[in-house]
Design a protein that fits this description.
This protein is an alpha+beta fold. 34% of the residues lie in helices and 14% in strands. The protein has twelve helices and 13 strands. The longest helix has 34 residues, at 493-526. It is globular, with a radius of gyration of 29 Å. The protein starts with 12 loop residues before the first helix and ends with a helix. Mean pLDDT is 85; it is low at 346-360, 370-378 and 519-527.
């Protein structure tokens, strides 16, 4: 039975809670739970139970309940992919993305190794210019402002003249970047068929275009895409493409679908584009910028742009978000009012407003009657945001003026009815971009879900081995009955101290591996 402790002399709440956890009787299990989430910043707390049964005999093979835990709940990882929110979970996401991309380049994970002989390129597609910005040009010694900026200068990416910069166009481009990429994949197929003198139906019967892409924010607050594009046979990665489907043919098709000069040189403009119609902003054309980089991915270990290098590059940016461009990593929508800035009563209007009317007639008993007022006619300002609809005023955000203008523009455009589907106010902190950061075609390689299933199955086997349970017969059918409920997120103060120790150990291990890898590379170079 836990001892009753007098901890009034312990000033630190975290240390006090840690002592209480150690007094629960099974502190090892508390420490084990914290270590199992591997330093997750904000783990999910669950309560419930799960039971695994034999479907035929109904014998209980394994059962678990959080009622038997010292703290009465189970800690699970948050699974957030963003490194700014949870470095631990983002490392797992980056590792999964690395294996997903690498499998589509060199085989593995149900993808044959022969896929490395297929034509594949690494393409970088950028946004157009919405006004000159401070930069570090490669073909000139200085920026257009006359200065030679340092690599980490704060003014990089900001407009030379904010008054003439097209903030509306920049936000709308971010908002439609995902749709533009989807249309581009279609236009690449069309350009490939036109270049080869084939119909699209004949092209689809001869080959398939597979891809995986990741989005990255530039300093100027605009997204650009890095994509691995591969040519396969009609059945996917299990079949090679025709001999005439080469890297040069693929490069030509990508250029025709994205670059103006390449498209017009072939007789007509075949670029992918979108048209945005608005009475407030006017008609705008959403298209790619003129800077396009398409490079061939060489075989495993041959050349500079190898399978491993591309997979590592894509995985690196899969955990990034808009905060790398200087913005915030949280939504600005006020949760109580949903960003509207006002609240209404459950019956659609506020009686308090009606009762204050001096001309409202009274009943014989002196009470005021309920007036039939259309719902929503009377609205009270949200007390949480004071009518702005924002969790915090945009002018008070700790960001640069350029980023503030981007956020403010996205918020203002979100009030127009023609942009309601874009939900720009919700994604104002993302500078208008609302697409997925990493996507792939169906036949590129395995899926993140399949990788997680393999990891989950491995953990189940490990738990069964630790519990001393025998593996079930292959012919038997297992049924799992579970009941879980969300309790909270985060650690107890004492658990946070244990998690900090876990993070320190993981950081030291990663540092040791990096130093060991650098030392191995130096030794290999000496040989």
């Amino acid at each position: 039975m836990p001892r009753v402790l007098d901890l009034r002399h312990v000033k630190s709440l975290a240390v006090r809670d840690l002592i209480e956890l150690a007094n629960l009787g099974d502190f090892d299990r508390v420490n084990e739970q914290v270590r199992q989430v591997a330093g997750c910043t904000r783990p999910v707390n669950l309560v419930g139970q799960t039971t695994t049964l034999d479907a035929t005999t109904r014998n209980v093979l394994r059962s678990y309940s959080t009622a038997n835990e010292p703290t009465g709940r189970l800690l699970t990882t948050c699974g957030n992919r963003r490194a700014s929110r949870c470095p631990a979970c983002s490392r797992v996401y980056a590792a999964d993305t690395y294996h997903l991309i690498k499998a589509g380049l060199s085989g593995g994970k149900t993808v044959p190794e022969a896929v490395r002989t297929h034509p594949r390129v690494f393409a970088t597609l950028t946004a157009p210019s919405f006004g000159p910005v401070h930069n570090r040009p490669t073909d000139k010694p200085r920026c257009a402002c006359g200065a030679q900026h340092a690599e980490n200068a704060a003014e990089l990416g900001t407009p030379l003249r904010s008054s003439t910069y097209d903030y509306t166009g920049a936000v709308l481009w971010n908002a439609h970047a995902g749709a533009l990429w989807a249309r581009t994949t279609t236009y690449i197929r069309r350009a490939l068929a036109a270049h080869l003198g084939m119909t699209q139906k004949a092209l689809n019967a001869a080959l398939r275009i597979s891809f995986a892409k990741v989005a990255e924010y530039q300093k100027r607050g605009l997204v650009h895409f890095h994509a691995v594009i591969r040519l396969d046979g009609p059945k996917g990665s299990n079949q090679p493409p025709p001999p005439w489907a080469t890297v040069d043919v693929l490069k030509t098709a990508i250029e025709s679908a994205t670059i103006k000069n390449a498209a017009e040189s072939r007789g007509r403009d075949t670029r992918a584009r979108l048209t945005v119609t608005s009475a407030h902003t006017g008609d705008r054309e959403i298209r790619w910028g003129d800077r396009l980089d398409v490079r061939e991915i060489t075989a495993l270990g041959d050349g500079e742009l190898t399978d491993k290098a591309v997979a590592g590059y894509v995985a690196k940016y899969a955990t990034k978000s808009a905060e790398d461009s200087g913005t915030v990593d949280r939504s600005l929508i006020c949760a109580p009012c949903g960003g509207r800035g006002y609240q209404t009563a459950p019956d659609g209007y506020h009686r308090k407003r009606l009762w204050k009317r001096a001309d409202a007639p009274r009943n014989p008993d002196g009470s005021r009657p309920r007036l039939d007022i259309p719902p929503g006619r009377f609205r009270d300002l949200c007390p949480h945001c004071e009518g702005t609809g924002q969790t915090e005023p945009i002018e008070n955000l700790p960001v640069q003026d350029h980023v503030r203008r981007m956020i403010s523009t996205a918020w203002e455009l979100g009030q127009f009815p023609e942009f309601a589907d874009l939900k720009l106010s919700k994604w104002a902190h993302m500078l208008g971009f609302r697409g997925h950061f990493s996507t792939k075609s169906r036949r590129y390689s395995t899926t993140l879900g399949a990788l997680r299933d393999v990891r989950r199955a491995w953990r189940v086997e490990q738990a069964r081995a630790r519990a001393g349970l025998h593996a079930p017969d292959e012919s038997s059918t297992l049924v799992t009955e579970s009941s879980w409920a969300y309790l909270a997120s985060g650690y107890r103060p004492g658990e946070e101290l244990l998690a900090a120790q876990v993070r320190y150990e993981i950081k030291q291990e990663l540092r040791f591996r990096q130093e060991e890898g650098d030392l191995g590379a130096e030794c290999a170079a000496d040989r």
